Each structure stands twice: as C-alpha cells, then as structure tokens.
C-alpha cells in the first residue's frame, strides 16, 4: 500500500514538473463557493461540498448525497461577473460524479465582449489500494473563450485533464493534492495554433480540533508561483458556522447556514483590488 501511495504521489508531482510552462493567462483559477472563499481558498484538503468538482475532485468520493449548487459574484466591484453551477450525483459503482459550469464575463468591465467558460465532468471514488482512508479523483475540463472587439475577433477552445488525491491520515488530519490540467490542448479557432495550459498543482492539509474547529492550509500554483493560503471554520452549532481566511494581499471572512437540505454560504474578501462578496446556495437530495 505504501508503495502504491508513493507511486501516485511521485507521478503527480513529477508529471506536473515535466509539463510545467508559463504562468496562466486566461482560465485563471478563481475561488468557487462561499465556504471555500471564506476560508481563504484553503480547500484542497477539505473539499467536502459540491465545489470539490473544481477544488479537488477526489473529495467527491466522500459525498453521500446528490446536490445542486449555484454561485454568482461581481469580482471586486469591477463589473466582472463570476458564475458557477454544479450538480453532483453519487453512484455505488463509479463513485460520485460531478458536472459543473463556470463563467467569467468581463464584457461590462472591458467595454467589449469577452467571456471565459469552463465545463467540467469529474468523478471521485474511495480506493482500497492506498493507505489511510483515501480517495482518488479525475476530471475532464472543456475550456472556451469568446472575444469580440474592434481590434480582435477570436475564440479559443480545448480540453484539459486533472487528477487529485484526498487522504484522511487520522480522524483529525487530512491531506490533499490536486494537479490541474496535467494534459491539455487549447486551440485558436482563427489560426488553429495549439498551446498547453500550465499545470496548476495545489497541496493542502486540514486539521479538525474538538469536532468544532477546522483549520486548513494550502500551497497553490506550486510549480510556477507558489502562494500560501490559510483558513479556519468554527461550528457554532450543527446549522451555523463562521469562517476566516488569509491569502496573499487578501483577508476573507464568511458564514454558513444550514436548514434541512438547504445550504447558504456567504464570504467577504478584501484585497488590494477592492472587495468581493460571494453568495452560494446549495440543495442536497
């Protein structure tokens, strides 16, 4: 088992380094969901809601119920709309399957048409050939852009494949690894030129204290420009939680409320570019 785990970890890290290239321009990874955002984006080793599709697909394997989650925000009050919709469905044979759509609409801020869309099909499943209580995840991402201006009228589209791991080392300790777009190919519709998206490698750890306090820390974009984020969630009751987080040049805070099958998560982020508020609503079934 230890050899199997070592092989998986070595493969993810070495492949990420081999395929490393320039920093991402388009399709920059943004915070998904009010919960993760309120914790400063330190969610790689948490990934316990529907947004695991984007943060760490291996976390889907721990979701026992189906869910639908939506989010919308105006990034920094600049007129950049960030929207997200995801559906997860558990399956006894294949694990939990997730399908998500994410859009960034910069048109109002730029004064001309610019959209980025991302469709993701992911699956996460518990595995027995690795040590600890371990999950593996894989996702297929479809990317597309639309650009319409007086100077440019071009679109790009392509695919990316991501893999992830989430392991519960102890009842109170978990580690997570997410390697986004290990293999990718993006093509310009006008010139047919192809490019690869840079790999997004994230490592995370989470610690649960006394069943009420959850602490988490991540290193994002480990290959190109490592950035550390940290967050905490304190459960005041089964239905109410408060959150704080810290990431480069940004302080975050948030709250989560549960009512039966309905989840409501809110986060407030304050950084150099201004303030952003994220509201996400989820329903379990």
What does this structure look like?
With 285 residues, the chain is mainly beta. Helices cover 11% and strands 59% of the residues. Strands 1-2-3-4-5-6-7-9-10-11-12-13-14-15 form a 14-stranded antiparallel barrel. A hairpin with a 5-residue loop joins β7 and β8. The model is unreliable at 1-23 (pLDDT under 50).
Q: Give the DSSP E fraction (strand runs of 2 or more residues).
A: over 45%
- Which term fits the overall shape? globular
Q: State the total count of DSSP E strands.
A: 15
How many strands, what sense, and barrel or not for the largest sheet? 14 strands, antiparallel, barrel
Distance between the termini: 35 Å
List keywords for this structure.
285 residues; 4 helices; 15 strands; globular
Question: How are the secondary structure elements laid out?
Answer:
Elements: H1 2-18, H2 34-38, H3 52-55, E1 67-75, E2 80-91, E3 95-105, H4 107-110, E4 113-127, E5 133-148, E6 153-170, E7 173-188, E8 194-195, E9 200-209, E10 213-220, E11 227-237, E12 240-247, E13 250-259, E14 262-271, E15 274-284
Antiparallel strand pairs: 1-2, 1-15, 2-3, 3-4, 4-5, 5-6, 6-7, 7-8, 7-9, 9-10, 10-11, 11-12, 12-13, 13-14, 14-15
């Amino acid at each position: 088992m230890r050899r199997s785990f070592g092989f998986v970890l070595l493969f993810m890290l070495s492949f990420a380094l081999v395929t490393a290239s320039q920093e991402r321009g388009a399709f920059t990874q943004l915070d998904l969901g009010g919960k993760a955002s309120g914790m400063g984006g330190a969610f790689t080793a948490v990934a316990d809601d529907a947004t695991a599709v984007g943060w760490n697909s291996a976390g889907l394997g721990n979701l026992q119920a189906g869910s639908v989650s939506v989010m919308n925000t105006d990034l920094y009050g600049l007129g950049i709309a960030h929207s997200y919709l995801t559906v997860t469905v558990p399956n006894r044979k294949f694990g939990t399957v997730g399908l998500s759509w994410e859009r960034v609409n910069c048109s109002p801020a730029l004064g001309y048409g610019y959209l980025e869309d991302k469709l993701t099909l992911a699956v996460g499943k518990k595995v027995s050939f690795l040590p600890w209580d371990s999950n593996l995840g894989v996702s297929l991402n479809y990317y597309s852009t639309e650009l319409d201006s007086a100077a440019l009228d071009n679109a790009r589209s392509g695919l990316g494949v991501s893999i992830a791991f989430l392991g519960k080392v102890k009842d109170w300790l978990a580690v997570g690894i997410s390697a986004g777009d290990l293999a990718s190919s993006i093509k310009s519709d006008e010139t047919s030129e192809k490019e690869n998206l840079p790999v997004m490698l994230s490592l995370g750890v989470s610690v649960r204290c006394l069943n009420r306090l959850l602490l988490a820390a991540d290193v994002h974009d480990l290959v190109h420009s490592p950035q550390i984020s940290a967050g905490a969630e304190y459960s005041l009751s089964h239905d109410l939680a408060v959150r704080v987080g810290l990431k480069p040049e940004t302080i975050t805070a948030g709250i989560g409320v549960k009512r039966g099958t309905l989840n409501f998560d809110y986060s407030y982020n304050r950084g150099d570019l201004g303030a952003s508020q994220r509201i996400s609503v989820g329903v379990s079934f």
